[in-house]
Amino acid sequence: MPAEPLERTELCGRPIGAGEPLFLFAGPCVVEDERICLAIAEALSDIARRLDMLVVFKASFDKANRTSATSFRGHGIDEGLRVLEKVRSEAGLPVITDVHTPEQARAAAEVVDVLQTPALLARQTDLIEAAAATGRPVNFKKGQFMAPADMEPLIAKARRAAPQEGGGPFLVCERGTSFGYNNLVVDMRGLVVMRRTGCPVVFDATHSVQLPGASGDKSAGQPEFVEPLARAAVAVGVAGLFMETHPDPANALSDGPNSIPLAEMPRLIDSLQALHARAGARLG
């Protein structure tokens, strides 16, 4: 059954959704240090200004789902939020970060513009409700183990917990589906199915090419497929894209194998925005 047209909404003071410009969540996987985050944010800020595009800087203060106990997780919530706040003030970009517990959701909401719930925690009702209850916009990632239609009850949980005076908006994010062991596949039909939530749809182009646990004690990736998958999602008509980027992916402390080299981002985003303008934003 075809989805009904969506109402437009706003994110960080900019219109998003059906018929509106493409927006971008981008940054390093994890807050490595202040210097790297500011360098990446400045490069993304240049893209945002040049294209008059909403770009939201993304970095996690804690990567709680690392394959190995010895992998870098971050510097903790206090230092991570300090760096994100500095990015926000110095680079002039809004910021988004992952939260893993209700307590983290409440603390992060005091600093960041947008919250995000990780794909592996997409069934955690307490976390979903706590993030929604902050009144902040929330990007809800679909679990790798979930069908696209499973996002409808997730969003119903969030709406029940949202402040009576409003809050949000809520967004739903596709990031690939488990396809056997150590592999993900993207079903572009899911981008249309998730529209039934009534939320803007985001496509996570870099995590969708991840090969979970494929390198034994860490994940691998296939970054050569980021651009074709992103182009397909934009052609379908997503409202926004999610991409992790790093100046030196080979030496990134998390998710390097599926990150876009920072130097390639201007060309890639130019190309995707031009495609979006031709295709039109048919999804919210």
TrEMBL record:
Keyword annotations: Cytoplasm, Lipopolysaccharide biosynthesis, Transferase
Cited InterPro entries: Aldolase_TIM (IPR013785), DAHP1/KDSA (IPR006218), KDO8P_synthase (IPR006269)
GO biological process: keto-3-deoxy-D-manno-octulosonic acid biosynthetic process
Chief localisation class: cytoplasm
Ranges where the DAHP synthetase I/KDSA domain occurs: 16-268
Record's catalysed reaction(s): D-arabinose 5-phosphate + phosphoenolpyruvate + H2O = 3-deoxy-alpha-D-manno-2-octulosonate-8-phosphate + phosphate
EC number(s) given by UniProt: 2.5.1.55
GO molecular function: 3-deoxy-8-phosphooctulonate synthase activity
Pathway, per record: Carbohydrate biosynthesis; 3-deoxy-D-manno-octulosonate biosynthesis; 3-deoxy-D-manno-octulosonate from D-ribulose 5-phosphate: step 2/3; Bacterial outer membrane biogenesis; lipopolysaccharide biosynthesis
Entry GO terms, CC: cytoplasm
Top class in the EC scheme: transferase
Family matches, as NCBIfam families: KDO8P_synth, PRK05198.1
HAMAP family per UniProt: KDO8P_synth (MF_00056)
Family: Belongs to the KdsA family.
Protein known as: 2-dehydro-3-deoxyphosphooctonate aldolase
Designated gene of the protein: kdsA
